[in-house]
Amino acid sequence: MTITTLSSRELNQDISRAKKATKIGPVFITDRGKPAHVLLSFEEYQRLTRQHRNIADALAMPGIADIDFEPPRMTIETKPADFA
């Protein structure tokens, strides 16, 4: 993986260079010499977020309200313990 570092000015002057650089690794974008942002390919972003998603994150996704999902309600029955 190769990390490319560009200043904000370089990014504004040559966005296509930054987009091409994401094919081989992340692009660090600096403001006044300090890292401020990271540009990733969409595939790399998906790979990173797919590993860390939990059910709470998935349910909080934008657009989740547009998905029809009605899971069946479960009934859990208990039975007395047999200590004999």
TrEMBL record:
InterPro entries: Antitoxin_Phd/YefM, YefM-like_sf. Belongs to the phD/YefM antitoxin family. Antitoxin component of a type II toxin-antitoxin (TA) system. This is Antitoxin. It comes from Acidihalobacter aeolianus.
